[in-house]
Amino acid sequence: MGFVWICLFLLTGRGRAQDPTPAPRIISDDQVNAIAKQMFCPVCENTPLDVCPTQACIEWRELIRDKLSEGWNEKQIKNYFVERFGDRVLASPPARGMNWLVYVIPPIAFLAGAYILYRAFKSWRVPSAEVSHPEDDDTKKHDDPYLDRLEDELKKL
To answer: Beta partners for 69?
Structure first.
């Protein structure tokens, strides 16, 4: 009977020692770069994180890989970096505060430019009423009598 208890104890002990631990997730470079290309390098000006060769960017990409392997999603990772470094790390800043101007000014400038070009093309195509042609004006006389006489002779022809 003691032998049976020892066997049962050993079998249950082995089962407890092998609790299911989640296998580490293997994160590909594509998964890391999908998030990294939506962020900017903290050191270099206007360089996406996925292509920057600096040591800081390499560490950030490894941090993204670690967070992904822990089960974090893209939004959580971005929020993590924004909390530490501010909105400047994001490739497209959120539309809040003064950042909303980034989304409003370009379309307004484009529409204003299109309107100005439309008006300019329209005015170039249609001659203005202010321009008068001297050959249409019979009453216009020149200060020079020679020119007046020449015009009168040409009209007779």
So the answer is: none
Those residues whose C-beta lies under 8 Å from the C-beta of residue 93, and which sit 6 or more positions away, are: 87, 99, 102
Q: Both 71 and 103 in a single domain?
A: no
- In the block, residue with structure tokens 């020679």: 146
Q: Amino acid identity of 49?
A: L
Domain that holds residue 88: 24-94
How confident is residue 22, by pLDDT bands cut at 50, 70 and 90?
A: low
| Six-digit token string for 131 | 């321009």
What's the CA gap between 16 and 78, in Å, rounded? 38
In-domain check, residue 142: no
DSSP per-residue letters across 117-130? HHHHHHHHHSPPTT
Reported pTM: 0.52
Burial of 27 (0-12, 13-18, 19+ CB in 10 A): middle
* Residue-wise pLDDT tens digits, 93-152: 777 777 778 778 899 999 999 999 999 988 888 665 555 555 555 556 668 888 888 888
Q: Which of 79, 94, 109 is the last residue of a domain?
A: 94
